[in-house]
Design the sequence.
């Protein structure tokens, strides 16, 4: 394998690891927000937190698609 190919492979692997960590962090934040929703003082606050988590989960799906794409380049 050429040096350039090896560098590209490492770059893709690094990017995958970074995105996997981002998914873990995002899911941890979503869990914390779920817990906060139980103690929200108003319906409006709960709805805001719910919307925030919906956006987070959408981001997780996008990260997963991007990881699949990166893996296809290995």
Sequence:
């Amino acid at each position: 394998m050429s040096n350039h190919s090896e560098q590209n492979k490492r770059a893709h692997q690094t990017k995958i690891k970074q995105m996997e960590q981002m998914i873990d962090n995002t899911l941890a934040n979503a869990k914390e927000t779920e817990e906060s929703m139980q103690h929200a003082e108003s319906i409006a606050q709960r709805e805001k937190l719910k919307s925030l988590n919906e956006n987070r989960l959408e981001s997780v799906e996008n990260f997963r698609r991007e990881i699949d794409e990166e893996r296809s380049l290995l």
